[in-house]
Amino acid sequence: MNKNIQNLITNFNNLINSFKPKRFRFISVLVPGVLLLPLQQTRSEEIFLKCTGKFEINRGALIKPDWETSYLTINLDGLISTIDEKGIKKEGRTLIRRNSYTITHRDNRNSIKNIYKINGPHRTYTVIFPQRNRTLIGTCQKGRG
Hints:
Number of strands: 8
Distance between the termini: 79 Å
Helix content: 10-25%
Number of helices: 1
Radius of gyration: 31 Å
Shape: rod-shaped
Order of helices and strands: HEEEEEEEE
């Protein structure tokens, strides 16, 4: 019986030793492959627009130009979009319905500051300032990307 156990142990050790180099090669191939996968960052699709508009009401004697230019980056996943207006970057929540995009910009107290509405097929652009009771109307074109 003691002889059978010794034979079993030696056979088991030989079995383990035969699998170690194969397992090491498998691990040495698997680990670098797994490490390279997360290096690729996934980016959501975005639309870059350059929008120019004029205020709806007559402002009287002009000190500044009557038109304003905004650069919009619309996230097509419906998350956060960015607005670059006069060098100031703003962020807003994006709502996408068919071919129109609505970006709602809020302040720290969660009250609505600006609402940007872009109509895709007609390329029209409206900015509603609810606190000032003013509306900016204009057109958009693809830009910066």
